[in-house]
Inverse folding.
């Protein structure tokens, strides 16, 4: 009994020390940012099978193996859907931030707008459409805190709202938060197929003064509510 | 703009058709009906396998990848394969790997034929799309203009040209090789085509110029886009680390207290 009781303060002390050590390891004087790894990544979705219904087909065995492949008569319909223009995520202190569409820089990096705006990767799906829609913003830019300054604090279960250029809005719920080295972002973040997900991306980890950049990216995965 | 590269398609690609060992493979093979105005039936070894095959329609032959189809006969819809064949192929090897479109089309002199084209499904740089142009029409060689620029010259039946371009509108038109503009692609298709990021947009010139059935068909293969290299979303330190440290420390302290408290409670119970 007594040793059990004394173990509690010891454990507390150990946890605090461990916590401080962890802080010392993660945080640095340059103000790095860590994301809590939390939640489960959205499951990889099953292939969306194209049902091929057609006019009556011949009955030979060979014929049964042949499926309709669609029509080449016209330009394919690009159902981009409404573009995102605004985002509110109270949980990380973002209120009605404007969203602009962005592409890639000449060096192949994703374009990121200034400190106060969020970039939507226009070569991927719009939020809510099939695939992974990417919204990225700075944690800090040119000495100013960016709109995603607090993205690392996002937690599973929190919700945010996206406004679209057709006046509609849609809610999304964070299901997971991850931190990746900058050059190891999963390809799935850019998928154009599969169940709809929205990923919010900013920088995190240690700030490298020599490169003027952070070592990591913080990614919050969300799904439509 | 990158240099357009014209590729001699038909003869070269036919020679690549190794006789496949079995029909289970990862190939994607589409059959495109590229002869405007004439619905057809397709027979293989006397059996109708596709009936009422409409111009511009595509049939997915992927399940037959690697198979050899004997005695392929294409007849006008309702025709008799014994007597009405417009295309007769003694043996057609369906490719067993890669992504292919086999096009039923008119050759340069107006005779129906089958030409297999291998589709370039290699990864496309982030922000770019691929344009493939295939001359499968009864028409002389053509130039393809993008804006005022003759981007593709002297493309003849049954050849193709392929290029990766920045995503965006594609103000393309078709001209006789070295000659006058025949039509804009937008006029033919009813809408301006675009270079779509991550997509190989394949334009087929089909029909007969003299017979006034000349038009364009379009096939799109998407999901080829590379991801951006990185997401550079911070170029300066955050204003101060204090909120972070405080939140983290508080979380740890609360966690520690909760753990300790729980253990205490259990011990007492």
């Amino acid at each position: 009994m007594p040793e059990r009781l004394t173990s509690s303060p010891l454990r507390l002390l150990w946890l605090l020390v461990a916590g401080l050590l962890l802080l010392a390891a993660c945080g640095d004087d340059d103000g790095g940012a860590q994301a809590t790894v939390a939640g489960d990544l959205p499951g990889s979705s099953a292939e969306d099978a194209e049902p091929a219904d057609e006019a009556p087909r011949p009955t030979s065995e060979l014929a049964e193996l042949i499926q309709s492949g669609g029509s080449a008569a016209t330009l394919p319909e690009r159902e981009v859907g409404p573009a995102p223009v605004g985002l509110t995520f109270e949980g990380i202190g973002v209120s009605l931030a404007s969203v602009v569409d962005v592409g890639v820089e000449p060096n192949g990096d994703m374009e990121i707008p200034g400190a106060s705006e969020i970039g939507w990767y226009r070569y991927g799906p719009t939020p809510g459409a099939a695939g992974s829609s990417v919204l990225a913003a700075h944690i800090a830019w040119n000495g100013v805190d960016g709109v995603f300054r607090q993205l690392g604090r996002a937690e599973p279960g929190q919700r945010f709202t996206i406004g679209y250029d057709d006046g509609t809005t849609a809610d999304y719920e964070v299901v997971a938060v991850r931190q990746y080295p900058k050059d190891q972002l999963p390809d799935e973040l850019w998928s154009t197929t599969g169940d709809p997900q929205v990923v919010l991306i900013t920088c995190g980890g240690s700030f490298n003064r020599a490169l003027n950049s952070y070592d990591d990216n913080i990614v919050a995965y969300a799904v439509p509510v | 703009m990158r240099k357009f590269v014209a590729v001699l398609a038909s003869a070269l690609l036919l020679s690549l058709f190794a006789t496949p060992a079995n029909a289970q493979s990862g190939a994607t093979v589409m059959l495109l009906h590229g002869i405007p105005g004439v619905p057809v039936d397709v027979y293989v070894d006397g059996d109708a396998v596709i009936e009422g095959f409409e111009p511009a329609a595509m049939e997915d032959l992927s399940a037959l990848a690697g198979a050899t189809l004997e005695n392929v006969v294409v007849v006008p819809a309702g025709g008799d394969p014994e007597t009405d064949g417009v295309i007769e192929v003694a043996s057609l090897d369906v490719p067993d790997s890669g992504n292919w479109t086999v096009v039923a089309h008119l050759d340069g002199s107006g005779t129906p034929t089958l030409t297999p084209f291998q589709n370039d499904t290699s990864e496309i740089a982030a922000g770019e799309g691929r344009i493939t142009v295939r001359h499968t029409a009864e028409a002389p060689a053509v130039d393809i203009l993008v804006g005022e620029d003759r981007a593709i010259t002297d493309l003849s039946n049954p050849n193709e040209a392929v290029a990766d371009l920045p995503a965006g509108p594609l103000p393309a038109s078709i001209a006789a090789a070295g000659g006058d503009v025949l039509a804009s692609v937008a006029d033919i298709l009813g809408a301006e085509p675009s270079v779509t990021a991550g997509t190989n947009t394949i334009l087929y010139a089909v029909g007969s110029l003299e017979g006034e059935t000349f038009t364009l068909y379009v096939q799109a293969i998407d999901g080829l886009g590379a991801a951006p290299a990185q997401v550079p979303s911070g170029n300066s330190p955050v204003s101060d680390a204090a909120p972070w440290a405080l939140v983290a420390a508080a979380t740890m302290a609360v966690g520690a207290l909760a753990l300790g408290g729980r253990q205490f409670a259990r011990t007492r119970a």
